[in-house]
């Protein structure tokens, strides 16, 4: 298959159909059954030496010394917006040909669904080399605007971000992101949709025609539709503009949302301020905190824990919410939201532990902590790696 190129074999952005794929303001959607691919096929979590992490009885990764690795959800994978480039990595003819020859894994269209028209009204994140594209749109038959997250492989980086000399299977990555998000939202929607997470409006496919020199090619691109939360990500807020009680309340609500998501059967895998949406009723009154971005999530009932960790047993699901003490006792909360915590704590682990213990150790709502509580005896300020 031929595509317009420059002398070095790059696809010409001015002539290539790539440049028009998200500029079209309308697309027709077909509705596939959620969960087209198996979300359980993700690789085991790995440590800094690229070794699979073991897991504790709650299914959480644990470090080699046996302590619960509460910082595992604080890890931030390479962000494609951080490369500083305006155009992203170049798209070569062979990249385009390979993607067109390897469409997404097939699925089935629900019998009771009809095609809808989608009109893009605003951009949230639209960038070459940026992974899933996010837009605000209107859908025929619906009065409220929704957010579409579009998993177009041609907008994923073709070069591996960790090993730049290696190519990246963008179709596989887009499929994996899509499958995990669909599985997570499908699992959580009836319990937490519209409160702790965006309300889920299903998984869809739209057909995107491309005019090429040797004829027209139709690409099938996956997307999910979800509630448009009228708030701001935590990263867009300035902690200094809020009084200390409000800052601590926001952090408290964030870690409690994480606990409810875990209790509902999903491990998010990428807890970060950029994935926490905040709605304010007044300038210093927190109305809603919601968790977004589930493309690293694992649905517990669909995972392959027994195969990955032979000899380890998954503990039974507790009757109460998992204690935030288990996840945050080691200090990972400083890395995720340290600037929101009280200044008087001075980045001391002991201060965080005392607050967690006082708030959650005897709670009627939360289960008792399952980990052995090792108190910080030094009680000195520390440096924490921010995420």
UniProtKB/TrEMBL annotation:
Residues 1-89 are annotated as: Disordered. Residues 44-58 have a biased composition (Basic and acidic residues). This is Uncharacterized protein. Residues 60-73 have a biased composition (Polar residues). It comes from Diaporthe ampelina. Residues 15-24 have a biased composition (Low complexity).
